[in-house]
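Methods — Computational structure assignment.
A single polypeptide chain was analysed. Its primary sequence is given first, followed by the predicted tertiary structure written as structure tokens.
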Amino acid sequence: MSRVQDQPDRYGAVTRVLHWGMAILFAAQFLSAAAHWALPRENAIREALWGYHVTLGITLFLLVLLRGVWGLINLRRRPSHGGDLLGRAAAAGHAALYALMVLVPGVRLLAAAGSERGLTYLGMTVFAPRETGIAWMRAPAEWHGELGWILALLVLGHIAMAVGWHHLVKRDGALSRMAG
């Protein structure tokens, strides 16, 4: 069990699999959004990448919830960020990442619940189409894209801190605790 669960000196196998698996999926998600934004409408690559955006977004949302529960279960055993100013900033950065990983898909799910189109996920109906849309449920989705790009910037900052600060400058083993 000790290899599966987090320990004060390293993250466990479940945390690492969720972290790195979600990192790959988030990279694909940001790539699909970037292609949708940057390429012309009739571009085949844009359409192919955009075709999985919703399914991948819901999958990531479910994984974020799972990872959050797993993190809470392991909260007392996890490696510490430290109590200094930089440690508190790291904790705040992680909290912001998690908040946006819930909020970004959350506003789109709320909009889908209030839309005439509804929502299916892997062939299952999540929200049936409505006869008339509900404006207040769709309104927050106007911020979905902007919040997504803020999330992407925070992810880049997370990577820069892990590789640049912890691995190259401090050489404190933080990256190896998550790498295994």
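Note: Residues 5 and 175 are 17 Å apart (CA to CA).
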